[in-house]
Write the structure tokens for this entry.
Amino acid sequence: MTAAPIRFDVNGVAHSVEVSPWKRLLDVLRDDLRLTGTKEGCGEGECGACTVLLDGVPVNSCLVAAGQCDGRTVTTVEGLARRGGDGETMLHAVQRELVERGGAQCGICTPGIAVCAAHLCDRGALAGAADPRARVRELLAGNICRCTGYQLIVDAVIAAAAAAVPALPPTDDAGERTP
Amino acid sequence: MQTSSGGSVGRSIARVDGVAKVTGAARYLDDLDLSGVQHGITVRSTIAHGTFDGLDLDPAFDWTQVTVVTADTIGWGQGFAAGGFGANYIAMLDTDQPALVPSGGRIKHVDEPLALIAAPTRALALSARAHARPRQTALPAVLTVDDALRADIKLYQDDNVFKRFLIRKGHSDDDELEIAMAGAARIIEGRYETGAQEQMYIEPQAMAAWPEPGVMRIAGSMQCPYYVHKAMKVVLGCDADQVAVTQTVTGGGFGGKEEYPSMLAAHCVMLAAAIGGPVKMVYDRDEDIAATTKRHPARVHHRLGLRSDGSIAAIDVDVIMDGGAYLTLSPVVLSRGVLHAAGPYRCDVVRVRGRAVATNHPPHGAFRGFGAPQTTFAYERQIDKAARARGEAPWVYRDRHALRAGDTTATGQLLAASVGTDEIIAVIRDAAGPAPARDGTNRHGAPVKRGRGYAFYFHGAGFTGSGEQRLAGRATVLTRAGGRFEVLASSADMGQGSITIFTQIAADALGVPPTHVRVPDPATDAVPDSGPTVASRTCMVVGGLVERAARTLRARIEAWAAAAGVPGDLVAQAAAMIKAGTEAGAAGAAAQAAAEIDPHHGAIAETVQYEPPPGIHWDDTTYTGQAYPCYGWAGCLVDVEVDLDTREVALTRCVHAVDVGKAINPVIVQGQIEGGTVQALGWALLENIVYKDGKVANANMTNCIVPTFADVPDLETIIVECPYPFGPSGAKGVGEIPMDGPAAAVANALEDALGVGFDRLPVLPEDIARALRGGGS
Ligand code: FES
Ligand code: FES
């Protein structure tokens, strides 16, 4: 039941995979592309560990079928950091703050949270919020973390949003990011 | 004690595995490339009690690519060396739990493993399972602790009691206890119930095994590599060096990966041996919730006899825990439960009785707090009721009666140093601020009632009694070529930050920057047994070993360098010593260095073993003496707002102060406290495992909910440091204590808000509705 190959862009790299259109995007990323940063915590859209950006919008990749991705752009946690001129990895502000502020413990929820939070920061979703911490809590409520109690993640996202360093370029200009 | 200001201890260095985790580079078990790996899955029982009459394989299905293993296809008793296996049980504290129920054997719970299936793809394994039908004959099941105690149906020995404990302080028999109780001016009596709680680590259980010549290799998500190692020696019937267990990056444990991984490892090795190649088993979420261990449901009957001045004349506690179908760790969980049951309050007459009983539920097991949260809920509700009955402010009442240095606990342990009561009481009092107005409206305009609740509690750090002495944990610090240092310990970092803490402790003891220290993944063929990663012992006990080993190693290197006239810092000296020691035909100082090189590690290695602090006396038969080397102390304040239309509870404030002795890494400690706090808040208000006919009825994340970002307020975390003289830099445990008390604080806040008591957890909106209608909780 393999249909036509599915062509899509993942972290700035064009891919063509021959899989069932019903295969979960999560499995295509992990098994076919070996991008194992995206995690499976529940397989039913509850935990957010599998969050990726599809055309710049956060989705639970366990609920997205490969067929839905044809011709589209996917960003995973592996695509958040950029490679600097000297070849060194430059973390996204959200990643840097998660490390600095203890926002990652066991780390299994972290890729999903980093992707979702990077999206919020890059889109300026916190700008103008009356209570930015409450806004972060609301916008990340689809991502479960069982380790941190959330406080240090909220701290990290607030700090990343405030960071003067420009974060990611807009998501349709993903070509500069490291695959 | 290392207090050098230039050191890293006491500073929040970024965790050493942080970058790998935020970039997705960290490899958890399911991320590993294992060439040719097959996917294993489990065929499980669907009845709570009965017999397994055999497995029928659908002849119409193509089984050629599929491997099926049952207890009857295994060559038990032949031993690994002869190509067979050892014994069909999971070695923990007893031998009662089979790895697979044999045909003709007894099924004791729903979702019990009956057979294993492996195939080159998970999809094929799943469709094979749909064509494998276990035949089962159901028997009446034991689904309540009352039925268990009636013992009409026998699941464990004659009385269904896995373990009993009795603690007596200040009286010699039950009559004397009753006399003391009868002399009290007032008796506060309550019955408390807490439900099963799911650990809900976000990485489900995951394990792999593959045979190599003469050795079975196992890797996976776990807290205790040496527990798995011990259990596999039994299952495989092999020597210690014929099985090697490595912990892979672990996505949370909280106790849930303490004993269960031994079961999973047993299944992996059976399939791997049958196939002759690698097998991995990764549970899906529903299976993980349905089949693996949870916090023990408990029932606690608590009597508090008060004198007319409010002091406590007598305490009597009776604890019953539902251990589930097999003994697993229940006696130890119960032990910690009873040892904490009288609470951190002064009282000369204490009786605590405890029983863990067998039912036909899946076995309950380790979960952060390990029995103490259940009894803490009871005593902190009781203390609150006592204050309320006397019309005293709850925090003032606790201050007046809490244990201080010089007091004795229920087991007669004299508290000497490191008692954080005064500091905890003070910091919570100072942080409290005005209580919220009782009546008001919330942001949706609904009428609300508000309240404030407190809890005060303690938690023993390390193993109970002489446990650490019996275990005799070891850790190694060594230096390799180039002057790099490594810490070898079997402690697993499942997110709590132990490898970062060890790095800091070793770096300071060696006097080198943390970047010069590495902590490799624990593997049983590479690291000594430092004991399991449990019981809030890793920092205090194993950290202490690391500190001592590092100091000794440093002294050896410095002594050699001084004799050999080698200048520079320790890194340079270590590098020179290794280089000299590995030179061919070494003489003089080089020969001395060569003599110091440990041939096993090919490095200069220092291994130290646990030595108990002086004056530890514990009597296991009477349950008296020093139950724990020291205690952590904590206080929690919670403000709640109850929506009177929806009966939903909003947590508007949570202040949590915890005495950790010394915060080696304050941000990591904060993360430990806050993670535990939110698990406790979830246990109080949301987390509810529903058993129906012995089966978990809500085995998925949609219906088995845990707190999200939006369910908890910003947390106010206060780290208190009352150093423990025998911990590294004064550190004691932190992992479990944050789980113990916040649930009681929530229930106390609800009583403050609504004027009705809630003695059962979780407190759900329907419980509040019922209580407000006058039905009680
Ligand atoms: S794995 Fe997709 S939401 Fe949990
Ligand atoms: S860090 Fe472990 S689940 Fe979030």
